């Protein structure tokens, strides 16, 4: 297998290195040079290597930004997501400035001041002014970031429920998600895992008058440009509802209801047709085609071509299939959303059908 | 060697044997149940290195699975067996178990016990001028408890239902319920028992270190003359004593929830067709308790490394550490702040958002002392006369990875930004660089630097150079690209990413990362080889090979019980008088020698500084 070959080659490489330096050592011990303490020659070589490393490291960082920046998620599909991305880019920008500067100084000094016999180091123990400056600069910069961040944070987290808010319960279990919509009365019925029985899989309290019109679905549909508030409930262990495209995440905690709200702003259709996504999906399908060739050659099924949909992931380790606990999300116009919801069976209907079946 | 003669000038050699007990040592009392802090340090080091080798091997295994998901590898079949790697394909159980035990081993066994345990034991008595720890016996006990703890953790790998697999953070209910994941059965029980032992050894050790530093400093060794290593190790011990008991209580409560039907952390759970009786507990409470230790723990890991690096950098730059007082102040500030930032791990845990704001504030505060330290290290290099010994290279590497990893902390510490990168590979990249790799570099720097003192022989520098450069490139190769994978929204602790075609274009990068990981892991063999062969065949060390100022270099090369054969030297100055000039600026204070050891009294031709 090619993969195995790669590994072997690498292992051999390591061993070669090892042998090389052993030879180096043997040859060294013939001369009078001390094989254990850095000599002027070592200082020089290592100093130059520091300089080389600085250059290679910078090129590597550039390469990373150049070819991996495209991994960054597409334009945020939620109202607050724009603020989020702006804050993120500002922070990354600031960080990279500091990174490049400090790494330069560190490695350049290591090169510039490499030791030589007879050279005198500068006895320099303190400088209050300098230290004050580099205490105060981070204070100011961080204060700016904190204030900006906290404003955004409180805006995101303080979701006020009003008439217009769409309240949806997200129900997590090993290993999947369900959504519960409130139905006509706009109010979710009471629920607790203690009520789980038979087809009442999410534990709805059948005695609650608000419960019967609730609708349980295995896809999450959201109306575009309307505020959505998620009430999160877990059946068993911790999960985390992670909506990367909407810059949203909240843990799902058994024994308590957590919440997160956002306003979706880009429909699935629009996202699918965005330049970013068209390019990305083309590339992914290219990769999948390549991989399929190998699979087919081995007598296995080819991979399906990929079409973009928003999805929800679980982002808190929850067991064996944690890696595959997903739900499709559809963002659509309000009409489409209403139409879809009207077509879903209500909890009352499901129960009635069940009763019917039992009678027969 | 006039330099050496000068260095020991102030040390009298006449007071023979005021330290009289020369009892016979048997093999067992000398090498196994030794009460000598130097031997105990070596025991900690070697146990830590063995655990480290296992931990790194595990990471290589699960990295192979990530790069080539669900493909067959002979090495899996060999190491994991038919049950966990049927036909050589690693299964999800095995993946989660490996990740969990890898994390546990690296954080606790390698970088807490292996790093701070080794160097606290070794350096505290030697650098403060004490004959041994306050209690040699307790010190021995704490090593053996650590040993038992390691054995239990390793043995948990072999139980029928598999080792703990709920992540090293062991959040309940997953860790409490064997129904939820098989690793939460016997494996988790052993994990908890092992950690209880671990905490016990850590507390015993820490108390010993604290008492020793407070009581046993030699004459003249005021707190403001302590080397930064000792400051760091001392404060680390204090943080340990404050925070480890909280983890112990969390572990005990978890044990009760698991075995005795209490409900501290459990409520409203339906699993495997049944509703559990537990009612009223909260997993969020566990998260608070866990991170009340967990966050200080990362400083328990990094502070000793910072201390070692400060010392090694000053000595090899032939310059005083820049801003000694600011360095001490920042250690204290970090220690204090580290106990009030734990909530930054819980921004999206369901905790009150207002608390999130508070923790963002305290977290970004802690960036300030950290920044001051980084700037001070860089200034220490400025206009130095840098001796590029391997210890020095790893110290420079430490500052580099600490900055790279620390900077992304500004993103993760910001509650808003954490929302979308929490628990993704961005976090993995961040904490490996700032804590894992940095502390590992600190450990290597310390081993290369103090090896002559530990074993009386020197390590080979050329092997050291190969080790450093390949590791330095490999570590960035592994963890720098990981940031971008995290920014793509890829969660951690995923057995495979193939369930989401959206992540297909990350596959190549994951292969690249794994290749770097394998190279990095393989090159550690060079270190192991250098370490072992130097113990037996290394060049014999001179008394003070790096021409350093601290007291350990005034002890004889051959270890003696009680450290100094004669009287303990007195201390007259701080430990950073490197390249100090005499009053007329014509020569060094001691002519022809660019360092003045701590035990040399103030000379007539020098200016007194405030240390
Ligand atoms: C060759 C070196 C290493 C490699 C390639 C490596 C790789 C990884 C990766 C990829 C993960 C994430 C796995 C996942 O979430 O699915 C991980 C987890 C972890 N690693 Fe490492 N690591 C290395 C060394 C270290 C070191 C030195 C430390 C010390 C702090 C460390 C501590 C951890 C911890 C605490 C976790 C989290 C475990 C969990 O999620 O429960 N690792 N490692
Ligand atoms: Cu999960
Ligand atoms: Cu933390």
Shape call of chain A: elongated
Strand order of the largest sheet of chain B: 1-2
Query: What is the domain total for the residues of chain B?
Result: 1
DSSP strand tally of chain A: 10
Give the low-confidence spans of chain A: none
Q: Could you tell me the radius of gyration of chain B in angstroms?
A: 25 Å
Bound molecules: protoporphyrin IX containing FE, copper (II) ion
CATH topology title of the largest domain in chain A: Immunoglobulin-like
The CATH topology of chain B turns out to be Cytochrome C Oxidase, Chain A
Instruction: Provide the CATH top-level class of chain B.
Output: Mainly Alpha
Description:
Chain A is α+β, with helices and mostly antiparallel strands. Chain A folds into two domains: 40-65 and 76-117 and 125-157, no CATH class; 166-270 and 306-359, Cupredoxins -  blue copper proteins (Immunoglobulin-like, Sandwich), CATH 2.60.40. Helix content of chain A is 48%, strand content 15%. Chain A is built from eight helices and ten strands. Chain A has helices spanning 2-30, 40-68, 81-112, 128-157, 268-273, 275-297, 334-342, 347-359; strands spanning 166-173, 176-181, 215-217, 220-223, 228-234, 239-243, 248-252, 258-262, 310-314, 326-332. In chain A, the strands form two sheets. Chain A has a five-stranded mixed sheet, with no helix packed on it. In chain A, strands 4-10-9-6-7 form a five-stranded mixed sheet, covered by helices on one side. In chain A, a hairpin with a 2-residue loop joins strand 1 (166-173) and strand 2 (176-181). In chain A, helix 2 packs antiparallel against helix 3 (81-112). The two termini of chain A are 59 Å apart. The model of chain A has no long low-confidence stretch (mean pLDDT 89). With 611 residues, chain B is an all-alpha fold. Chain B has one domain: Up-down Bundle (Cytochrome C Oxidase, Chain A). Chain B is built from 16 helices and two strands. Chain B has helices spanning 2-7, 27-32, 37-67, 74-84, 92-128, 136-155, 186-215, 228-259, 283-317, 324-338, 353-381, 390-412, 415-421, 425-455, 461-487, 507-537; strands spanning 270-271, 274-275. In chain B, strands 1-2 form a two-stranded antiparallel sheet. In chain B, helix 3 packs antiparallel against helix 16 (507-537). The radius of gyration of chain B is 25 Å and the shape is globular. The two termini of chain B are 28 Å apart. At the A-B interface, helix 1, helix 2, helix 3, helix 4 and strand 7 of A face helix 5, strand 1, helix 9, helix 10 and helix 11 of B. The structure holds protoporphyrin IX containing FE and copper (II) ion (2 copies). The site of one copper (II) ion has 5 residues of chain B, from helix 9.
